[in-house]
Amino acid sequence: MIRRTAPPNLMVVFGASGDLAKRKLLPALFHLHQQRLLHKGFVVFGYARTRMTDEEFRTQIHEALVEHLVQEQGVAFDEGLWADFSQRLFYQSGPYDDRSAFETLAQRIAELDARFPTQGNHIFYLATPPNVFEPITALLAEVGLANSPCGGWTRLIVEKPFGHDLESAQKLNDHLLRLFREEQIYRIDHYLGKETVQNILVFRFGNGIFEPIWNRNYVDHVQITVAESLGVGSRGGYYDKSGAIRDMVQNHMMQLVALTAMEPPVAYDAESVRNQKVNVLRSIRPIDPLEVNKWVVRAQYSAGVAGGREIPGYLETEGIPPDSTTETYVAWKLEIDNWRWNGVPFYIRTGKALPVKVTEINIMFRRPPLMYFNSRETRSQRIHNSLTLRIQPDESIILRFDAKRPGPQLDVEQVSMDFSYSRAFGDASISDAYERLLLDAMLGDSTLFIRRDETELAWDRVTNVLEGWAVQEEIMRRRGKTFTLPQYPAGTWGPLESDDLLARDGHQWHEPVLNEGR
């Protein structure tokens, strides 16, 4: 195995005093440092509105590492390596729309380039609310930081949400591409950094036994579930402006669909892989706005118990308007109009306040043409053979098939074979997604990042649904009726309408079973 070590670079983290930086980014960077994967010329420069000195910033980051890396993840903390890492941490407070503050930033970067062997390589990470993406990047260009003045490379990492709909995503892309080249822009989706998501392609294209049956001839339908057991909590104000389809479907779920359905790439490189994902997104059948209810179900959770916690109803949550029609649950029947998947529905669902937190892909295979064992004693003739790719938690792959139960009768039962990451590779085998993505960005590998056309195609299909919902609500208003969403009690798997979406095709949702096969 080739050990990948990052080249020297200076990373500016905008929003460095925020939750994402403290909970994910800085712990990931320090863990890379502990694994000796960062160059001695690596520097972190935090920028945020919060006033503090370099030393105060270092103290805050030390506390964050202890909380999120040591206490939550159980990672051993090397104080000697921290002493070295902390001397590479610097900070500047300032607004995101003030040129003089960015001129000071450029001056400090130049000083650090001279002090450390960064070779003039710069990464700018936008860990900020999206409303300041444009002013930050515009000022970076104005003060000469869109390209390194020292002859090194410059890269820009942009967090989600990338736009609010197709029009806003196109506008943001147009803005960024006036200042940076496409190859400089790394649109991040942390799901793509997960080991189990990366393994989808290895599982499909690295094994000769699965890809030949990965098509309409053998697959009956596909189910993808991204479930969260928590409600919106204190994020109510933010969440009510986005909803489940913007928060989860446009990014994470569309990426899972693309990786599951894509054709083999010409090579395992950024352009080849992303070309095939784009082809899948382009093949997703658009929805007639007047028929949106035929294809998509949306709902809100009511009060209940999920994940062992009592959860108030969405409309009773602080910060949520009592007449809100923002969805906390979405189920969508996708049709992919290409040769491989024609006639194979992809059912995707995501929601808040569901029974467990789990992400999995279920490939449901066609039944045999003749049911030889269709007798009163058999119990599994109506159950599909299936393959589950469990993304999180209990990262695993589970194959289910029928077998004869020992005994004098012909009693058939579904059994399973499973692969567990923790059993095969140890409990520490699943690295943090941000570690992989940050290292890839430093190395200039954009395979696991989102290209412009991917973002816009995903938004195109999602905006199609949003427009259908708007038409639906307008029709209700014209009829003088109040529009309300279906409800599902917290701790259940969604509204009855979601079950009906599959039942119309003779299917039912696969309910995840955690620790299956252990």
From TrEMBL:
<keyword id="KW-0313">Glucose metabolism</keyword>
<dbReference type="InterPro" id="IPR022674">
    <property type="entry name" value="G6P_DH_NAD-bd"/>
</dbReference>
<comment type="pathway">
    <text>Carbohydrate degradation; pentose phosphate pathway; D-ribulose 5-phosphate from D-glucose 6-phosphate (oxidative stage): step 1/3.</text>
</comment>
<feature type="binding site">
    <location>
        <position position="352"/>
    </location>
    <ligand>
        <name>substrate</name>
    </ligand>
</feature>
<dbReference type="Pfam" id="PF02781">
    <property type="entry name" value="G6PD_C"/>
</dbReference>
<protein>
    <recommendedName>
        <fullName>Glucose-6-phosphate 1-dehydrogenase</fullName>
        <ecNumber>1.1.1.49</ecNumber>
    </recommendedName>
</protein>
<dbReference type="Pfam" id="PF00479">
    <property type="entry name" value="G6PD_N"/>
</dbReference>
<feature type="binding site">
    <location>
        <position position="160"/>
    </location>
    <ligand>
        <name>NADP(+)</name>
    </ligand>
</feature>
<comment type="function">
    <text>Catalyzes the oxidation of glucose 6-phosphate to 6-phosphogluconolactone.</text>
</comment>
<dbReference type="InterPro" id="IPR022675">
    <property type="entry name" value="G6P_DH_C"/>
</dbReference>
<feature type="binding site">
    <location>
        <position position="228"/>
    </location>
    <ligand>
        <name>substrate</name>
    </ligand>
</feature>
<dbReference type="InterPro" id="IPR001282">
    <property type="entry name" value="G6P_DH"/>
</dbReference>
<feature type="active site" description="Proton acceptor">
    <location>
        <position position="252"/>
    </location>
</feature>
<dbReference type="GO" id="GO:0004345">
    <property type="term" value="F:glucose-6-phosphate dehydrogenase activity"/>
</dbReference>
<keyword id="KW-0521">NADP</keyword>
<feature type="domain" description="Glucose-6-phosphate dehydrogenase C-terminal">
    <location>
        <begin position="201"/>
        <end position="510"/>
    </location>
</feature>
<dbReference type="GO" id="GO:0050661">
    <property type="term" value="F:NADP binding"/>
</dbReference>
<feature type="binding site">
    <location>
        <position position="190"/>
    </location>
    <ligand>
        <name>substrate</name>
    </ligand>
</feature>
<feature type="binding site">
    <location>
        <position position="49"/>
    </location>
    <ligand>
        <name>NADP(+)</name>
    </ligand>
</feature>
<feature type="binding site">
    <location>
        <position position="247"/>
    </location>
    <ligand>
        <name>substrate</name>
    </ligand>
</feature>
<feature type="binding site">
    <location>
        <position position="357"/>
    </location>
    <ligand>
        <name>substrate</name>
    </ligand>
</feature>
<feature type="binding site">
    <location>
        <position position="194"/>
    </location>
    <ligand>
        <name>substrate</name>
    </ligand>
</feature>
<feature type="domain" description="Glucose-6-phosphate dehydrogenase NAD-binding">
    <location>
        <begin position="12"/>
        <end position="199"/>
    </location>
</feature>
<dbReference type="InterPro" id="IPR019796">
    <property type="entry name" value="G6P_DH_AS"/>
</dbReference>
<keyword id="KW-0119">Carbohydrate metabolism</keyword>
<keyword id="KW-0560">Oxidoreductase</keyword>
<dbReference type="GO" id="GO:0006006">
    <property type="term" value="P:glucose metabolic process"/>
</dbReference>
<feature type="binding site">
    <location>
        <begin position="15"/>
        <end position="22"/>
    </location>
    <ligand>
        <name>NADP(+)</name>
    </ligand>
</feature>
<dbReference type="GO" id="GO:0009051">
    <property type="term" value="P:pentose-phosphate shunt, oxidative branch"/>
</dbReference>
<comment type="similarity">
    <text>Belongs to the glucose-6-phosphate dehydrogenase family.</text>
</comment>
<dbReference type="GO" id="GO:0005829">
    <property type="term" value="C:cytosol"/>
</dbReference>
<dbReference type="InterPro" id="IPR036291">
    <property type="entry name" value="NAD(P)-bd_dom_sf"/>
</dbReference>
